[in-house]
Each structure stands twice: as C-alpha cells, then as structure tokens.
Design brief:
The protein has 20 helices and 33 strands. The protein is α+β, with helices and mostly antiparallel strands and 702 residues long. α11 packs parallel to α13. It is elongated, with a radius of gyration of 36 Å. The protein starts with a helix and ends with a strand.
Length: 702
C-alpha cells in the first residue's frame, strides 16, 4: 500500500510539474505576443526590410534644333525563380503544360535558339529549382512587354517565377556622332557634357522601404510609395547642330582615312556668339577606322604656323606695318647657334611683312620677334595675357589642358625660346584656344567665350538661358585688327592657301599651319607633322570660324596644312555656305528659319493634294506615282518629289502627322517611341539610315 501511494505521489508531482511548465510556456507566449509583440515584429522587419536608394532618371542632352543626343532608355534583365511553389504543385503540372508553347514563342521572338534548346535549358533549371536563373539581359521595353505576355510568364512573378529588373541605360541615338563632346555616362566614368553638367543632369536619388523575399529579390513595402521620391535630372540644350556636326565629322574622317592620319579635330564656331555648333574628335582605332576616343580639341600641342597670327598682332601693336621691309634670308637664317628654316626656301630676301606672313615664313616671324621683343620679352608676354593665351579658353567642357608657356627665369628658357615661339614652337595651347583667337579677329577684335550649352530645361520648361559672353576689352586697336584681316585674306589669295581657294564662291580669311610634333623624350626625331588650317568666312561678313588640326603618321610625305587640313576646312565651309549663307539664308544669333522661309517636309500624297487644293498654291511635281512625298522649297517656291519606301532605308518623316509616321515606321518593322504632340519635328534615325527590323526610332513632335 505504501509503495502504491509513493508511486501515485510521484505521478501527481510529475503531472503538476508538466502543467506548470505548460502554463509558463503559454504565459511567456502571451507575454511575447501581447506585451513584447511590437518590439519583436519591428526586429523581424529590420532583418527583412531595408531602405534602398532609387536612382533618379538622368536628364536628356538635346541639340540646338531639338534632336536628342543623349537620353535614358529602359533596359530589362530577366530572371526566373524556379523555387516558387505553383510551378511544382501536382508534380510540376503547370510547368509541363506551358513549356512547349513558351519555348516556341521564345524561339520566334529572339531567333537565337530552337524551341528544343530552350526547353532543355529551362527544364534543367526547373528540376534544379534554381532561385535566380539569369534568362536574358538588356532587353528593350518592347521585348520585355512581349515577353511578359507569353504563356506561363503572363501569370506573374509569384506563379511563374518571372522577374524583370528595370535598369536605365544611357543611349546616344546618333551613336558615334559628337560622342566625345556629348560624352558618356557610365557610373564614375563620365566625359564631355555628361561630366561637365553632371550635377544638372543627374537629378536627386530617392529612397524607398523594401522587403526581401525569396532569392534575395526585394519588393516595395507599399507599392509606388517613397520615403523620398526621386527627382528627374534637368535637360540641357547644346549648341550642337546635328547637320553641321555630321558634315564636319564626314569631312574629317574622309581625309584621315585617305591620308592614314593618327588623330584629328575639326570645330565650327559662330562668329558673333562664340557658340560651338560642331566639334569632331577622331583617333585611329585600327587601319582605316577612326572613332571619337579622346577630346583632342582641349589637349595642348605646339600650334605651329597658326600661332604666327599672334606674332603679327604683337608686332603691329608695337608699331610695325604690313608694308615694312624685312629680310627673310632666302628662307634660312642662323640665330643663337640654331638654324631657322622656312618650309620652302624660295630664295627671297627682302620682302614685306605682309608677304612673309602670306608665305608663312618662319624666318620672317622670328626676325619680327628678335627686332622688336627680345630686348624686352615682357611686352610680348603681356600681349599673350591680353589674348588669354596664358589661360584656358573658358569653354564649358571639363578637362581642357592649361597652356604651357616658357617664360624668362624658367629652367627651359634659352636665347632661342622667344624667336621660336614666334612661329609656333616652345609654346603649347589647345585647338579651342586657337579657334577662339581667330574668331576674335573675325569679330572685329571682340573675344567671345566659346560655349557648348545654351539652355537648361526642366520637363520642357526653360529654367536657365546661357547667353553669349564677350570679354570686356579689345584685344588690339581697330587698325591692327583691320591689318590682320587683310593679312589673313592675303594668305588665301596670294599665299600658302592660294591654290586651295582659287575657285571659291566666297572669300576666305585664314592661315595654314605645318608643325613638327614633339613626342616627349623622343623629341622631333619621329618626323611626325601636325597639319592645320584655321580661318573664317565669308571674309567680308564672317559668319563661321572653323579650325581643322590633324596629326599625321610619321614620315608622311603629304603633311602640309594646305593639302591635309585645308581640304577638310573647305568641304565644311562649302556645305555651310550653300546651306545657310548663300541667297542670304544666314543662321545668326537673332535670326531663326521659319517654315514659311525654308522648309522640307514629308507627308502622304493624298494629304498633300488636299492641302494644295484648299490653299491653291502652285508647285512643281516630280513625284510620279509615289504615295509618299517630300515637299521642299523656299517661301512660295515649292517642289514635291516622291519618296520610295523599300523597308531598307529610313525615309524622311519630318512634317508628318503622328498617325502617318507610326503607320509607316511600324510597317517597316520599327518600334516607335514618341514625345510630345502634333507633327514630327525630329527623328532619331536620319533619312537614308539602314533599317534593322525591331530597331527603335524616337520621334519628337512639336
């Protein structure tokens, strides 16, 4: 009996102990839930939730005529999470039912694999339950949209595992056009306007609370809500004119290919404003192939004979006259133990200062220095400061090199330093400085700051206009400027550029330049020449100043400024003259072309017939049986010509209604992205551009 009681007591005690433990557990659970619940839930959220930065959309860079030069385009990386439960329910019934039609659709869209190849790849990933299977990268919006409607994928992320990660990619619609000037934006590696105006274009990043889900993927805690909303960057409107830029690059590239040159730069500046309307920088990639790899316009080099303009200006300011006599020693003169030699020893001795400049005599310029400035070099250097030769040009483009000028007291100073500077050696300046200097002569002695951006906009609204800036001093007296213009015209009439402009329809003022290029420790022994031509036109009423500077391969026999840089300069000037200046159709700061003056539009023949019927305008028609027309003319002088649509080359759609433009582009297999309302005023694929099916075209409406 005692044994039984003892056993029962132990059982009851154990039972009571278990009950107490259960009560304690329940009590603790209740305490955690009800009392400490907020704390623990917050701790859990802190492990699965975090604040992330939402990149702001970068602003767009436009040309002066409204064309997009650099903009954001969405790209999509596609992942598939094969761990989602619906895919594996009922032994993967959903996956196995949809995989065949999905793979057929994928093969048809991407055309890179057969349906069987896609099926094998996806089935393998499905069976392995891969969490974030990388399916496709950098799809455009149209591809993503199509893909999201495919069988299985259209069920969404939580049933199919389909995950699309959107990323903004910087796109230059004109590809390599002005690439180094416009620049690129790749993380920290920015150049050109993208770097110079980075704070304007970048906008302000936002912040958002997200929650981590399977596979490390995050989703917003509250869809569409931000702690701080991202602010889109501002747009900038550059001075770049797409047509002039294309003409400039084409002319430069053609000469560099034919002459197997190393590097080249060509720039066009509006005389009255200092606007840089074109800047082409080409470097050799491989034999016969050039690209915009560096901004040679802002890199300093010894200018050579184009710097003789500075020497002549200083001499004229010092009291020298163009008709003063000077002995150029037959083109060979010894000074300071070194020989000064003209490019061509003509045998001429006594001549005028004007003729010495026209024939680009090194001896003549060195003698002007020796006779007027060697006793007191500071007079010469003071004038360099007045011309801003000893400082950067001030262009709104980061990375311009500082001039390298050897002055008295410097360890490199020698007896020959100043005379050699007289014909462009012992000094290094950037091509943009040379262009600015010559433009100053074209502008009657008023120096304009060169600049590339004329406006900053926010969603189309002007928030800042950047006006031309003139430096508040005259670089020289009116008589000196007049003499310099006579001398620069003389180069093109009687001097080294005489043959180049013999049959020109307009008068040119400019200077040729041929300089040996120093290559560091190697010096000048590689016999590499720099060919230059800088000038303005029309000489009597200058509209544009152009600089062309090309560095040739070593020992190239064709290396003179008049035969290498000169033809490039003339080709650019010819196109500008025929397009903007001939018949008084000038592009000036206060003058803009209107539709009623100069026009070139595209539209359907039926619309055109309807318009002309109502307004009763006569026109010349050479369209024959074409359904689409190109209508162009000046004022009331109108012509219509047919546009052939062969699905291989991009037609002109400027002037079309959006309905016609979209129908035509989609018929040719293009994907259209349009901005604005009204008629088409610009197209990202230029007329004649080869068309690739599925390619995107961006259309700007007015």
């Amino acid at each position: 009996m005692d044994v039984k009681r003892d056993i029962l007591w132990r059982v009851y005690l154990s039972y009571i102990f278990v009950v107490l433990i259960c009560i304690a557990i329940l009590g603790k659970a209740f305490y955690i839930q009800q009392v400490q619940g907020t704390y623990w839930r917050g701790l859990s959220d802190s492990l699965h939730q975090r604040i992330i930065s939402i990149p702001a959309e970068r602003g767009t860079i436009y040309s002066e005529d409204g064309q997009m030069l650099s903009t954001n385009m969405p790209k999509f990386d596609i992942l598939i999470d094969f761990r989602v439960d619906p895919l594996h329910e009922k032994n993967g019934k959903l996956f196995r039912e949809k995989i065949d039609t999905l793979c057929d659709s994928l093969s048809y869209l991407f055309k890179d694999k057969t349906p069987n190849d896609y099926k094998a790849m996806l089935t393998k990933a499905f069976e392995a339950r891969e969490p974030n299977f990388e399916f496709k990268n950098k799809l455009d919006y149209q591809q993503y949209l199509t893909l999201s409607k495919f069988p299985l994928f259209k069920l969404g992320r939580y049933k199919s595992g389909f995950i699309a990660i959107e990323k903004n990619t910087r796109l230059n619609p004109y590809a390599n056009l002005g690439y180094r000037t416009i620049g690129l934006a790749r993380d920290e590696n920015k150049v050109g306007l993208e770097k110079s105006y980075d704070t304007v274009l970048a906008g302000q990043n936002g912040r958002q609370l997200v929650r981590a889900i399977a596979g490390g993927v995050t989703v917003p805690v509250q869809d569409g809500e931000f702690l701080i909303a991202p602010q889109t960057g501002k747009d900038i409107v550059s001075n770049i004119n797409v047509f002039i830029q294309q003409v400039t690059e084409k002319a430069l590239n053609s000469m560099m290919v034919s002459n197997a040159a190393e590097t080249g730069v060509a720039m066009v500046m509006e005389v009255k404003t200092g606007k840089i309307v074109a800047m082409a920088n080409l470097g050799k990639v491989r034999e016969g192939v050039y690209s915009e790899n560096l901004n040679y316009a802002t890199r300093v080099t010894e200018p050579g004979s184009t710097f003789k303009l500075v020497t002549l200006l200083n001499a004229l300011e010092y009291g020298v006259k163009l008709q003063d006599k000077i002995n150029i020693e037959g083109g060979l003169w010894s000074y300071g133990g070194k020989m000064v030699k003209d490019a061509e020893t003509s045998g001429t001795y006594e001549t005028t200062v004007l003729h010495a400049f026209e024939e680009s005599s090194n001896v003549g310029m060195a003698k002007l220095i020796v006779e007027n400035f060697v006793p007191n070099p500071q007079i010469y250097y003071k004038q360099l400061s007045k011309l801003r030769i000893d400082s950067t040009s001030g262009i709104d483009l980061m990375g311009e090199g500082r001039p390298q000028i050897t002055k008295p007291g410097n360890k490199l100073w020698a007896t020959t330093t100043l005379p050699w500077m007289g014909f462009g050696y012992n000094i290094a300046i950037s091509p943009i400085q040379t262009l600015t200097l010559y433009n100053c002569i074209a502008n009657n002695g008023v120096m304009m700051r060169p600049y590339l951006v004329n406006a900053i906009k926010d969603q189309g609204k002007l928030i800042k206009s950047i006006e031309p800036k003139a430096y508040p001093w005259a670089i020289a007296s009116p008589n000196t400027i007049k003499s310099l213009r006579i001398a620069l015209e003389g180069v093109c009439i009687n001097g080294t550029a005489k043959k180049l402009f013999a049959n020109s329809l307009y008068k040119v003022a400019g200077k040729t330049g041929t300089a040996l290029v120093s290559e560091g420790a190697s010096g000048y022994k590689n016999n590499r020449f720099q060919s230059s031509f800088v000038g303005y036109f029309p000489a009597e009423n200058p509209q544009y100043t152009i600089a062309v500077i090309i560095i040739n391969r070593p020992n190239n026999p064709n290396h003179y400024g008049a035969s290498v840089a000169g033809p490039v300069w003339k080709e650019i000037a010819d196109r500008l003259y025929s397009t903007y200046i001939h018949n008084k159709l000038e592009v000036a700061p206060s003058f803009k072309l209107k539709d009623s003056q100069l026009f070139n539009y595209a539209l359907s023949k039926s619309n055109f017939n309807n318009i002309t019927k109502h307004i009763q305008i006569s026109y010349q028609d050479s369209s024959l049986n074409n359904d689409w027309l190109q209508v162009h003319g000046v004022g009331l002088q109108m012509k219509s010509s047919g546009q052939s649509m062969d699905d291989k080359a991009m037609p002109n759609i400027i002037g079309m209604k959006l309905q016609d433009a979209i129908w035509l582009c989609e018929k040719m297999g293009l994907m259209v992205k349009c901005y604005g309302k009204g008629k088409v005023i610009s197209q990202s694929l230029m007329q004649g551009h080869a068309i690739i099916k599925g390619q995107q075209i961006q259309i700007q409406l007015n």
